[in-house]
Design brief:
The chain is 37% helix and 22% strand. It has 16 helices and 16 strands. The strands form two sheets. Strands 1, 2, 3, 4, 5, 14, 15 and 16 form an eight-stranded mixed beta sheet that branches. The protein has an eight-stranded parallel beta sheet with strand order 6-7-8-9-10-11-12-13. α9 packs parallel to α10 and α13 packs antiparallel against α14. 55% of the residues are buried.
Length: 414
């Protein structure tokens, strides 16, 4: 057995109540100025004030002095599209020149251009590309993450993506797979999108669920993509097959995606830039967790999702990168944390909760990660500062000194 004692640490962590935190709870975190963490075989055995933790050290332990630096839980990124090949820099320039996301999609760009690349890529090429993204996320403090499919848009290529995602689990990042065959309508179904919905519902979802390739099913409910009725049909089929439910809701237009999320009591509703107050109220009443993506709004030069209003209404809020090759090429949860404070008006404490514990609840991992507590995995980040606020205060700098996954250090150098 391996016993490690991390001492001389300033600890900042949410405390798990067995559910996502909401409202004023998101401002309540545990902190310890002279703290320590005792780790046995990758799990936290004791954590708290250093003198108290030392009482539990009854055998030889490897001691690591953290020099009074801040320690937070490893980031949990609950919304990514990290399985892809190639980038879309030219589309970024088009956006700067005024083209909208949906206009680019209609021109055959956007998601469909990445679909072409993923379909053409071999399994090994896709694995290598995805592994690089995951490793950059780890170096930037993400120790657990979700990855969606959705750049295959056929049974074979969606399976290829999910098999790549499955092969990367635990190497060393914990990864949750989400099936998102309903990410866009492929070119071959442009004239008959209903037939594609039929394919997703009748063939893709049953096959992927039977193979155990995904934990969740997601759908892009948006104008020119999938309607509310399409989304309802797809998500109900996924639930029938035992998959958890997620929805890209009201990103560009308020189609009623937030209300659908509340109606179906999905595990999380994501984006929500254009969600109505009625939709958000319904989500609060149904306890639906909102996953917000401030780096995407920043990249697209759009207004941020109304995070303050959501918290005040009682919607539990999580944060994610939305890492993808088009609208937001970002693996850094530190950047997301920074934007949540400086752009969305969240407090340091709210941003920490949203990027760790609530994010873990969004992907069903809170039993194991998301907070630094006894029995959970020893996944944590050491910052070059005294509080988590350093990540918003020290702009233009990566403030992550060390990243630990189950008590094992991984280089933070990129």
């Amino acid at each position: 057995m391996t016993l490690k004692l991390f001492r001389n640490a300033r600890i900042y962590t949410p405390l798990d109540k067995g559910r996502p935190l909401r409202g004023s709870e998101m401002n309540q975190i545990y902190s310890e100025e002279k703290g320590a963490i005792l780790i046995r075989d990758g799990y936290i055995e004791s954590i708290g004030q250093e003198l108290e933790v030392l009482k539990y050290v009854t055998e030889d332990a490897l001691e690591i002095d953290l020099g009074g630096r801040c320690v937070i839980p490893g980031f949990v990124d609950p919304h990514t599209h990290a399985c892809f090949v190639g980038t879309r820099e030219r589309e970024f320039i088009l956006r700067l020149q005024g083209a909208s996301y949906l206009e680019i999609l209609k021109m055959g760009g956007g998601i469909l251009s990445t679909v072409d690349k993923v379909r053409s890529a071999s399994y090994d090429e896709l694995y290598t590309s995805t592994e690089e993204v995951v490793n950059r996320a780890l170096k930037n403090g993400t120790t657990s993450m979700e990855i969606k499919s959705g750049y295959g848009l056929s049974l074979d290529h969606e399976v290829k993506m999910l098999e790549v995602i499955d092969a990367l689990k635990g190497k060393p990042v914990d990864i949750i797979a989400t099936f998102m065959g309903a990410h866009a309508v492929p070119r071959e179904y442009k004239e008959n999108p209903k037939a594609y919905v039929d394919l997703v519902v009748e063939e893709m979802i049953p096959h992927i669920a039977a193979k155990g390739l995904a934990k969740y099913c997601d759908v892009f409910c948006e104008e020119s993509v999938f309607s509310v009725d399409d989304a309802r049909r797809i998500l109900l089929a996924a639930r029938k097959c035992g998959l958890g439910l997620k929805i890209h809701a009201d990103e560009v237009y308020d189609l009623g995606g937030a209300k659908l999320a509340a109606e179906l009591k999905v595990d999380s509703a994501e984006h929500l830039l254009a969600a109505s107050e009625e939709g958000l109220k319904a989500m609060a009443e149904s306890g639906v967790l909102a996953v917000l993506l401030p780096a995407t709004a920043f990249s697209l030069r759009k207004s941020y999702a109304p995070a303050r209003k959501m918290i005040e209404m009682g919607v539990p809020v999580a944060l994610a990168t939305d890492c993808n090759p088009g609208s937001c090429y970002c693996e850094s949860m530190e950047m997301v944390f920074r934007l949540a404070i400086l752009g969305m008006g969240l407090s340091m404490e709210e941003s920490l909760v949203a990027s760790t514990l609530n994010a873990a609840y969004a992907i069903g991992m809170a039993t194991h990660v998301g907070s630094l507590e006894r029995g959970k995995k020893a996944d944590f980040v050491v910052l070059e500062g005294e509080t988590p606020g350093i990540m918003a205060y020290h702009l233009g700098w990566r403030n992550i000194k060390e990243v630990y996954k189950m008590g094992q250090r991984f280089s933070s150098e990129v």
